[in-house]
Amino acid sequence: MRTRTVAGLLVPSLLLLASWAVQGRSSASGKPAREEPANAGKTTQIKVRVLEGIPSQFQARIEQQKRALSKVVPPSVGLAPRAMLNLTKRWTNGQTLKIAFKGGDANLHKRIADVVSEWTRYANLKFDFGVDPATGQYRRWTPTDAEFAAEIRVSFNQPGYFSLVARDSVDPQIARPGEASLNLEGFDKKLPSDWKGVALHEFGHAIGFEHEHQGPGSMCDFRFDDDPGYVAATDDFGQFVPDPAGRRPGLYTLLGGPPNNWPQAVVDHNLKDLPATSAYSGGAFDKLSIMKYFFEDYMFISGTASPCYTDSENVVISTLDKIGAARVYPRALDAIAADDQIRAKIFDVLSKAETLPATTKKHFNHLLDGLKH
Ligand SMILES: [Zn+2]
Fold it and tell me: What range does the record give for the signal peptide (predicted)?
């Protein structure tokens, strides 16, 4: 997939399992890194990017878990089922999250650790990289682990970038101890120019943040339909391109063709089925969020005027990201107590729900016990 030189379109991957294709990032210079195909002159407006890095086993398990939990009636604390689902994923306030690596050397691990630890300045969480003071080596995990070596298990050898969202990383219904929960493809070979932004984005998922553009307040006016009268035209790669009159294919057409070949239902699922589970609960849509993808202007009905449009990729944690992280993981004791109270009610209901499998109930019972400590 990486041999393709087309670039341009980046769309969100599956709900809840966030993924960021390697090709999907632009350079740290702030301008999208583009390697134009030979026929770029004809297709400058629209170039479709390959979406990669979504391990299908996670997708299946997450969907299954979501369906099971959606059947449980939330406790009467004014929570929508989806808000409940999101709360079950969050780490505990003040929790220390262990992080382990597979592949890479201590120098790389340190660089990643130094960058992503910025999140813990805002969120009331701690990162423990398990550095051995004698050797300087960072904690490692292996595919043969029988128990979770760490909450966040980083690998570099899977396709693309992705991270499970918070507790999904250690939910036995979703992740196994021998599976990576976060992947940064190729970082162990060569760091891409925008690696800091990528690492911050993926660790944002790892602490519980969803995509900003998929939140309930998203202002992304995606242009799903073709321009009126569009006559299908393709380039040398078989990708849909504007017709001779300049009419553009919409996202259904674009993503329905190579290289993604998504049926309309998949496009809807990935772009329309917005979870009401934004990490920035109650916050305004933030187009500068590190958790928002870069979208080319042609993806929006209003083009560059779209409230979702930025002229370059977001590579740093935004001001609203910082506020959101502090809101989701507060430090004030009364805020923590209020948060714990809501979660205790949810865990109590889920640990007794008849419709859930025994292992899931046990998982939530364990979380409930953790709150009572
Ligand atoms: Zn993402």
Answer: 1-24
